[in-house]
Design goal:
globular, Nucleoside Triphosphate Pyrophosphohydrolase, 7-stranded mixed β-sheet, 9 strands, alpha+beta
Length: 171
C-alpha cells in the first residue's frame, strides 16, 4: 500500500496553494497536485512502459508511462523526474527533454503533469517495490492496444499528446 505522504496543492499554473495528504488527493479531484512523467525512448524507437503494481491505489495492473511519480514538497519538477527515473528504473545522468505540462482530471483525482522525454537503452534495473514489470513497446503495438484496457487512461491520453507533439515538432 502507498504511504500517506504530503503533496503540494497547486493551481493550474503550478503555484503552490497548500498541502494535503496523498490519501486526500487521491479521493478529492478538487486537490490539484503535481506529478511528473518521463517517456523513455530506445535507440530503435520503442517506448519503455511499466506495469503498475497490483497494490497501487490508482490503476493497478495497467501499463503506464516509463516513469511516473509525484513531486515532493519543495522539490523541482526536473529533480523529481530524475529521482523517479532512478527509483523506478535505475537510470541516472539523463539528458531530459521537457515536452509539455497538462492537467489530468478524473472523478477521483486531478494532477498537473509535466512530461519529459529521454533516449536510453538502459541498462534498466526495475525496482519491484515500484513496478511489476517493464517492457519495450513499438509505436505500432501501442496503437493496436489503445482502447483494449491494458493501458491506464492517463497513458492513452499521454500517448495521443506525445504523438501530436512529435507531429508538430517534426519528430
Amino acid at each position: 500500500m502507498q504511504s500517506d505522504e504530503k503533496f503540494e496543492i497547486v493551481d493550474e499554473g503550478g503555484n503552490v496553494t497548500g498541502t494535503a495528504l496523498r490519501s486526500e488527493c487521491h479521493r478529492n479531484p478538487q486537490l490539484l497536485h503535481r506529478a511528473v512523467h518521463v517517456l523513455v525512448i530506445t535507440g530503435t524507437g520503442e517506448l519503455v512502459l511499466q506495469l503498475r503494481r497490483p497494490d497501487k491505489d490508482i490503476q493497478p495492473d495497467k501499463w503506464d508511462s516509463s516513469v511516473g511519480g509525484h513531486i515532493q514538497p519543495g522539490e523541482s519538477v526536473e529533480a523529481a523526474a530524475r529521482r523517479e527515473a532512478t527509483e523506478e528504473l535505475g537510470l541516472s545522468d539523463l539528458a531530459l527533454e521537457l515536452l509539455y505540462t497538462y492537467v489530468w482530471r478524473t472523478d477521483r483525482e486531478s494532477e498537473l503533469i509535466t512530461t519529459y522525454r529521454v533516449q536510453s537503452d538502459g541498462p534498466f534495473t526495475p525496482q519491484p517495490e515500484e513496478l511489476a514489470d517493464l517492457r519495450r513497446w513499438s509505436p505500432a503495438v501501442i496503437e493496436g492496444a489503445i482502447g483494449s484496457g491494458v493501458f491506464t487512461p492517463n497513458f492513452e491520453h499521454e500517448w495521443q499528446m506525445y504523438c501530436n507533439y512529435c507531429s508538430a515538432a517534426g519528430g
